Q: What sequence folds into this?
């Protein structure tokens, strides 16, 4: 049943209610596990922790305020971070009262269920729609750079493409941070979605001397090992497994590496280039003397950083290098407020 | 174990004996595996990182008997650590990789670059000047590359310089290089080729793939004919420096523009982390297809499974594990990021091994190795 005149905020709230309803449907866990590659526990964790069903009115108001109206939005979703469908559709709903959604072919389960449950929100599924057939409005595309480029290339003149492409998360553990707490927070940020998605930290910089870095590595390794049991890592793609082996060998040679059943933590040699490990619960820890060095070390990859985790907002902003980086406390990197796209682009 | 140059020198001597035997068309002085195992043991004793890698792979250097027993060092290790058996003070030359799009560069330090030069020259001579009829040397050696002073840390530039010194009539000078500050000096090249044409001298034209593309773009349909019997060597990728061209198409276009037999356009495959190179053998063997690279007797390219690192079945694609007996003081076995496949007579390059291409908005590993810190 359509409700054409429902205000944007009300539609958004209805969308969130629909998401909560979908999340409660336990029969979705198995198909989600199959389509995402996450373990059933990983699916449950993502649903309970990362689905923004408890967004505040202020968040939703900000979401609407930050959106520029468009006559229609066509959303093209990516695979991997299945709950991201909610935010993507919410952003689209804040932009237009007419929204169509093309779920990822590999990972369509949650998006389909959400759209079907979102009665009255004026969102439709268009699984076979070609970008070239869209005549007006906007296309919101999520995913890899190749996907984004393909969509840009196919879009008709006059159709605006808003791209949310590839990115990574980084974290900084400040010199006065409590290491146990930092390790717990980092592990929480890493485990969700098995580190796929741009919010998860794959590089962790830590202020301080070598022993402090080694201590963090040990604590993070221990915490990730606990989570290997509680929330087992799911399936890795062959390329991910290959790159993980390569990362482990590289770090065994160049620095220090520890690993468990479902994770790898590497400690980089002092002053070396930042190496970004593949997703799949793999963390590259590098020592820095201060925030200035952290910024300098991150500079070569800065344009790819979309999320920074840090206990100090000021420090996080300094190493993030701009307002278009999502800043969060450690442990909260995967749970940003629902006030816009995760990458703030 | 304390560093003892005589141990390294002895291994260099054994490695060079392979080259001498090759040049003399004689049997190799010892089994490949014997020197390989000794090199790997030596490197495990003097490169702490390699010892750690061996341990991580469950490989005991004391029990190395075959080349395959030694774990391969991923090329990324050259980007974030020193891969070297000897103290930094003894470095004679350090070659740097050209880096990723984000700037990190791998470093390969050498204490005895003469070993590199000798091996490169021997196999380069075989692949580029041999065949029937052979290229008469000395001959003009023209380089579509910047001179060494512009790229002092490039192993490719160094190798070309060595070739020009060995195959040319005179020591190479600035006038033999035809890329300056990134600009192709076509008129100067044209003048040199014209002189060779008048003197009825075949030339050897060496260049990177992207430099050849620039040459082709510059001469367009007019062509740029080389004297009869000339040869061209092209190497390397494009890395955003020119339009990208399919390898077969590039060979055809180069041959057509230069007026040479397509089989005289020889591709080379090498990398900074190695001391040996691989070539197409189209000039040496009429049965060899373009795109098939051959190894010198002192190096092997083994396609391995991306996870287990075990050799794949004959003909299957795998990651290139490159065993190089000339890498005496660095890493005898290197794990490249290229996909290869064994074929009769050699191996084929199948492109880069896909970096972990994650789903969603995460990012592939290949794209992300940051530059080394300038912090001391």
A:
């Amino acid at each position: 049943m359509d409700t054409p005149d429902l205000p944007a905020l009300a539609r958004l709230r209805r969308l969130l209610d629909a998401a909560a309803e979908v999340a409660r449907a336990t029969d979705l866990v198995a198909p989600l596990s199959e389509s995402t590659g996450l373990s059933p526990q990983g699916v449950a964790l993502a649903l309970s922790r990362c689905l923004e069903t408890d967004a505040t009115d202020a968040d939703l108001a900000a979401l609407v305020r930050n959106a520029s109206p468009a006559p229609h939005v066509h959303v093209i979703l990516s695979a991997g971070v299945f709950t991201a469908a909610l935010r993507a559709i919410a952003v689209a709903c804040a932009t237009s009262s007419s929204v169509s959604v093309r779920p990822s072919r590999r990972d369509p389960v949650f998006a389909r269920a959400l759209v079907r449950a979102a009665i009255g929100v004026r969102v439709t599924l268009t699984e076979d729609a070609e970008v070239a057939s869209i005549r007006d409005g906007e296309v919101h595309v999520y995913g890899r750079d190749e996907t984004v480029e393909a969509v840009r290339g196919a879009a008709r003149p006059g159709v605006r493409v808003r791209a949310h492409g590839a990115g990574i998360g980084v974290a900084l553990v400040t010199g006065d941070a409590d290491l146990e707490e930092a390790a717990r927070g980092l592990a929480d940020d890493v485990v969700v979605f098995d580190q796929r998605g741009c919010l998860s930290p794959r590089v962790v910089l830590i202020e301080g001397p070598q022993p402090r870095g080694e201590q963090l590595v040990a604590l993070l390794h221990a915490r990730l090992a606990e989570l290997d049991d509680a929330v087992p890592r799911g399936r890795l793609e062959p390329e991910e497994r290959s790159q993980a082996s390569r990362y482990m060998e590289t770090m065994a040679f160049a620095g220090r590496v520890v690993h468990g059943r479902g994770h790898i933590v590497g400690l980089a040699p002092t002053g070396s280039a930042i190496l970004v490990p593949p997703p799949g619960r793999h963390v590259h820890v590098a020592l820095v003397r201060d925030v200035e060095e952290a910024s300098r070390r991150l500079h070569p990859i800065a344009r790819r950083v979309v999320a920074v985790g840090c206990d100090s907002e000021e420090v996080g902003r300094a190493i993030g290098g701009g307002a278009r980086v999502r800043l969060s406390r450690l442990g909260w990197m995967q749970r940003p407020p629902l006030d816009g796209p995760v990458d703030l682009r | 174990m304390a560093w003892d140059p005589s141990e390294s020198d002895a291994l260099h001597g054994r490695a060079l004996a392979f080259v001498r035997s090759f040049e003399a068309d004689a049997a190799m002085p010892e089994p490949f595996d014997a020197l390989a195992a000794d090199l790997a043991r030596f490197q495990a004793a003097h490169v702490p990182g390699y010892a750690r890698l061996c341990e991580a792979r469950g490989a005991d250097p004391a029990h190395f008997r075959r080349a395959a027993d030694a774990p391969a060092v991923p090329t990324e290790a050259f980007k974030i650590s020193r891969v070297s058996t000897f103290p930094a003070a003894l470095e004679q030359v350090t070659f740097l990789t050209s880096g990723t799009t984000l700037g990190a560069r791998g470093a390969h330090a050498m204490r005895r670059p003469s070993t590199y030069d000798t091996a490169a020259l021997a196999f380069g001579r075989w692949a580029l000047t041999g065949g029937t009829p052979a290229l008469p040397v000395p001959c003009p050696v023209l380089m579509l590359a910047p001179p060494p002073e512009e790229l002092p840390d490039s192993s490719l530039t160094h190798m070309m310089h060595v070739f020009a010194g060995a195959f040319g009539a005179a020591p190479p000078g600035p006038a033999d290089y035809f890329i300056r500050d990134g600009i192709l000096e076509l008129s100067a090249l044209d003048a040199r080729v014209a002189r060779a044409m008048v003197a009825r001298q075949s030339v050897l034209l060496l260049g990177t793939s992207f430099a050849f593309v620039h040459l082709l773009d510059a001469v367009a349909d007019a062509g740029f004919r080389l004297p009869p019997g000339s040869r061209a060597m092209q190497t390397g990728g494009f890395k955003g420096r020119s339009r990208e061209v399919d390898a077969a198409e590039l060979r055809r276009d180069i041959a057509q523009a230069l007026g040479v037999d397509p089989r005289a356009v020889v591709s080379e495959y090498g990398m900074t982390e190695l001391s040996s190179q691989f070539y197409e053998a189209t000039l040496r063997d009429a049965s060899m297809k373009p795109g098939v690279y051959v190894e010198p007797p002192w190096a092997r390219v083994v396609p391995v499974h991306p996870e287990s690192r075990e050799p794949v079945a004959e003909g299957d694609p795998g990651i290139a594990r490159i065993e190089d007996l000339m890498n005496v003081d660095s890493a005898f076995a290197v794990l490249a990021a290229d996909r290869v496949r064994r074929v009769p007579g050699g191996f084929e390059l199948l492109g880069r091994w896909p970096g972990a291409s994650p789903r969603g908005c995460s990012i592939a590993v290949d794209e992300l190795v940051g530059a080394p810190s300038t912090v001391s």
